[in-house]
Amino acid sequence: MTEELWRLPRVATTIGMGRSWIYLAVQENRFPAPIRIGSRAIGWKRSDVLAWLDSRQRRVL
User: Fold this and answer.
1) Which positions of the chain have pLDDT values less than 70?
2) How far apart are the first and last CA of the chain?
3) 48/59 Cα distance (integer angstroms)
4) Is the pTM of this model over 0.85?
5) Neighbour-count burial for 27-43, b at 16+ CB within 10 Å, e otherwise
6) pLDDT digits (tens, 9 = 90+) for 37-53
7) What is the C-alpha to C-alpha distance for residues 45 and 8, in angstroms, rounded to an integer?
């Protein structure tokens, strides 16, 4: 089974953060890094995004 890749708009909507925050958090190693899916395209692994979101929710509780 292949991993589903999410592009930036879907990632931003899912986590509730904007483009600038996502790229800054990636740079500071606070959010999963994207992977290259083409010469000018990147995407995030669905499992990485959901695991990050789950870890944030567990810290709040």
Assistant:
1) 1, 60-61
2) 33
3) 17
4) yes
5) eeeebbebeeeeeeeeb
6) 999 999 999 999 999 99
7) 11
